[in-house]
Amino acid sequence: MKKISILLLTLFLVFSCSDNLEDLNKDTKNATVAAGETFFTGAQKNMVDYMASINVNRNVWRQFAQQVTATTYPEEANYNIADRKIPDNLWAAMYRDVLKDLDESAKVLSATPTVGTAGATQLKNQLAIIEVMNVYAYATLVETFGNIPYTEALDFTNVLPKYDDGKTVYVALIARLSAAITKMDAAGSSFGAADIMYGGNVAKWKKFANSFKLRMGLIIYDADATLGAATVQSAVTSGVFTSNADNALFQYLNATPNTNPMWVDLVQSGRLDFVAAAPLVDAMNGLNDPRVNVYYRDPVGGVIKGAPYGANNSYALFSHIGSMFYVSTLPHVVLDYANVKFMLAEAAERSLVGTPANAEAHYNAAIAASFDYYGVSGSGVYLLQPSVAYTTAPGTWKQKIGTQKWIALYNQGFNAWTEFRRLDYPALVAPPTGAVNVVPRRFTYPIGEHTLNGANYTSAASAVGGDLLTTKLFWDKF
To answer: Which of 32, 192, 309, 317 would you call most buried, defined as having the most Cβ atoms within 10 angstroms of its Cβ?
Structure first.
């Protein structure tokens, strides 16, 4: 009888405690669901890390813009981007590490209860800022590849997403950006310290969104003048950058893994992979541009010396990337006031905002802003030179603006490459050893897409005019 009682008691304890035993498998010390703000910060950092990197496995835009060139391994300077699967790496970074994190951030934040009017406003601002970043990421993909997965892009159960027409996507992105701008309430809060770019300042995010909208309007203008003009005018009316204080800067820290990727690639790696490129150095030296001594260091024979672009160069024989870019905490410039003023000069020349008579003032202000950002004095003297002054500098307005914008966009490789493709100035040429005989107009699609999404890849390649480095995209008309 005693044995039966013990057995019954044991069975009672087992069944009555089954729920508690399951609880033993739960991790009570670590979060099982990430906060929406965490996903946002991750997406923001992943996005800027890719744009800031100079690693040849990730980011070759500075080389395409001929701001720097290679030493021992000149494959990328010669436009071989397939061996290291550079398109695949960009594709994964934007879709998996940026867009998917932004998607999760929006989902988690939307499912989190808000408190009062302030909480509702904060959520509205957060979702609008997420939309701005979505537009930035998708626009980067369209401007790089052309047609891309869009409507089916983030459904990870669909491993064979279709590609959408690049122009159709770009038009939709402009509409999404416009809607996000109208939803921002500068009187409310947003991400606070989780926002590494603006610290949650909604007014600054709104200026950034309008400035990026101005850029998108100019990019699409040659493909759709009506939409381009309306987009530019709407952005300027709503309010773009008005000083360097508005610059979109991602502030890095002094501790790994939050250091500037350039520092990782140039200092921590201990590698000597890059030297100054002759095209930009020669242009700046020819214009007596004092910024050349900030952009680069280690003069040769008393002057900054650039290496032949695309050649197998010796590190010891040429000047190198400037000292300020070897600092772990260096902020990366996502978009700046100088670029905006150059865009306004172009908008004036096209009579979209003001008239051609207004272009010179914007051009002068753009150059002054670039000098100020880099702590270089003498912009007024520089602008007095006949080779620089807007009324006497050689060429059309595209050449004047394009050349000076190229100089000002140092270390903003993607923006510099895109503006070169759009304005066709400066007249960069491919190296004689290049895989193609022109500076690439796009990235080829990832190798992974050839093999895993073949039918949709083949259709997209045909639609853009061929999956080639030389194929001009829908917005690159001239």
So the answer is: 309
Q: Is the peptide bond before 113 cis (omega within 30 degrees of 0)?
A: no
Provide the CATH number for the domain around residue 236: 1.25.40.390
Residue 210 forms part of a structural domain: yes
Give the pLDDT band of residue 34 (cuts 50, 70, 90).
confident
Quickly state the pLDDT bin for 393 (edges 50, 70, 90): very high
Kindly state whether residues 247 and 116 are assigned to the same domain.
yes
Taking the C-alpha atoms of residue 223 and residue 477, their distance in angstroms, rounded to an integer, is 7
202-221 helix and 166-183 helix, angle to the nearest 10 degrees:
150
Q: Give pLDDT tens digits for 289-315.
A: 999 999 999 999 999 999 999 999 999
- Residue that terminates a domain, selected from 288, 308, 326: 326
- Rounded Cα distance, 70 and 444, in Å: 21
Helix, strand, coil fractions of the chain, as percent rounded to 5: 55, 5, 40
CA distance 105 to 178: 21
Report the SS3 class of residue 257.
coil
Are residues 172 and 292 located together in one domain of the fold? Answer: no
Show the domain range for 297.
272-326
Whether 168 and 228 share a structural domain: yes
Q: What's the total number of domains in the chain? A: 2
Residue 25 domain flag = no
Judgement on whether residues 99 and 176 belong to the same structural domain of the protein: yes
pLDDT range class, residue 13, cuts 50, 70, 90: very low
Residue 216 in tokens: 């998108």
Integer Cα distance of 390 and 400 in angstroms: 7
The yes-or-no verdict on residue 25 having pLDDT over 50 is: no
Answer yes or no: pTM beyond 0.90: yes
51 and 170 share a domain?
A: yes
Amino acid letter, residue 316: A
CB 181 within 8 A of CB 214: no
Q: Measuring CA to CA, which residue among 137, 145, 73, 64 is closest to residue 105?
A: 137
Half-sphere exposure of 30 (CA within 13 A, CB side): 4
Q: What is the spatial distance between Cα 201 and Cα 189, in angstroms, rounded to a whole number?
A: 7
Domain boundary among 326, 341, 359: 326
Task: Give the count of alpha carbons within 13 A of 3, CB side only.
Answer: 0
Say if residue 47 is in the same domain as residue 194: yes
Whether 293 is covered by a domain: the verdict is: yes
Interval 216-273: pLDDT, tens: 999 999 999 999 999 999 999 999 999 999 999 999 999 999 999 999 999 999 999 9
Contact 142, 148 (CB under 8 A): yes
Q: Which is nearest to 366 in space by CA: 408, 410, 335?
A: 408
